[in-house]
Design goal:
Spore Coat Polysaccharide Biosynthesis Protein SpsA, Chain A, 226 residues, 7 strands, alpha/beta, 36% helix
């Protein structure tokens, strides 16, 4: 069974090659591919990606900066695996957790979401995340500790019907649940950012996400290819 690891990247020039080495070491002899989507980086991220000479690593470069959500969506569309895994490119995630999540997926789940139970982010980011988790769980009937954790593993059927919409990546568990799929959760590692800077935007995250949350809850079928 082929596994596609989809990774959005924006201005992560110092993280790309270490991430490549970590994934290669972790995935070993599994049947896998890695899709890295460069979101029109302004640094040397794309140059670093071109240095990777590995047929299992495929690179897509967007012509203009569209944001993490769009980059992730395009990467998923480009992927070919029956199982899709996602993670960020900033080295705050541990690729080894993908293997643990694959094991959980085999227990009858359709999607496994990561839970950064010891999160290495600042106070504001952690606080807003708690608020978002509470609202997501209440509105969508979820029971997850970390609905927006970038580390997820899910079966292709869970995601391929979903059309792109803004902030799509923050509602992957919600729409998977609304479609009737079974979701599990697993504690994952989380590390402090060493290189680069966070692309976190507080106002954008709060107001736009809240608005989209309400729309998704009551009109989620409009984003499915049915």
């Amino acid at each position: 069974m082929k596994i596609s690891v989809v990774i959005p990247a924006y201005n992560e020039e110092r993280n790309i090659l270490p991430l490549y080495k970590m994934i290669k070491s972790t995935m070993g002899k599994l049947d896998y591919e890695v899709i890295i989507v460069d979101d029109a980086s302004t640094d040397d991220t794309y140059e670093e990606l071109k240095r990777i000479e590995d047929r299992r690593f495929r690179v897509m470069r967007l012509r203009r900066h569209r944001g993490k959500c769009f980059a992730l969506y395009e990467g998923i569309k480009m992927s070919q695996g029956e199982i899709i895994a996602t993670l960020d490119s900033d080295l705050q995630n541990d690729p080894k957790d993908i293997l643990k999540m694959l094991g959980e997926l085999g227990k009858g789940y359709d999607c496994i979401c990561g839970w950064r139970y010891e999160r290495r982010d600042g106070f504001v980011k952690r606080t807003l995340s708690r608020v978002g988790n509470f609202l997501n769980n209440k509105i969508f009937g979820l029971s997850l500790h970390d609905t927006n954790c970038p580390v997820k593993v899910f079966r292709r059927d869970c995601i391929t019907k979903i059309k792109y919409f803004k902030h799509f990546h923050r509602f992957i568990p919600a729409i998977i649940k609304l479609q009737g799929f079974r979701i599990g959760e697993l504690k994952v590692n989380h590390y402090p950012r060493i290189h680069g800077v966070s692309k976190y935007g507080v106002l954008n995250r709060v107001f736009c996400t809240l608005r989209t949350m309400v729309v998704v809850r009551f009109r989620w079928r409009k984003w499915l290819n049915e």
